[in-house]
Specification:
Strand content: 15-25%
Helix content: 10-25%
Strand order of the largest sheet: 1-2-3-4-5
Order of helices and strands: EEEEEH
Shape: globular
Distance between the termini: 41 Å
């Protein structure tokens, strides 16, 4: 079990984060915009709330997750693409 912040902040938002997670199950431990994540030993940053659009790479299977703004939950990147395509089809 574990996750770590690989990168913090970008040009647009200081609370944007890029996480590395050991396993898919660790995605549920990550913070969101409205809630803090599960604090790990000696961790003073990773568990703090982050901005929508933050990303997480799961090292177990190379899936990328994005923090969804509307639902405040982590969504696998290919699912995000499908949501965008459905929007443009309408």
């Amino acid at each position: 079990m574990g996750y770590i912040v690989f990168k913090c902040g970008n040009n647009n938002d200081k609370n944007w984060k890029y996480f590395y997670c050991d396993r898919t199950s660790d995605i549920e431990l990550l913070p969101t915009y409205f809630k803090e994540g599960i604090k790990q030993e000696n961790d003073s940053l990773s568990y703090r709330q982050c901005s929508p659009g933050s990303r997480a790479l799961c090292l177990e299977n190379s899936n990328v997750y994005i923090l969804n703004k509307d639902e405040d939950k982590w969504i696998k990147q290919d699912e995000c693409i499908n949501i965008e395509l459905e929007f443009y089809d309408e």
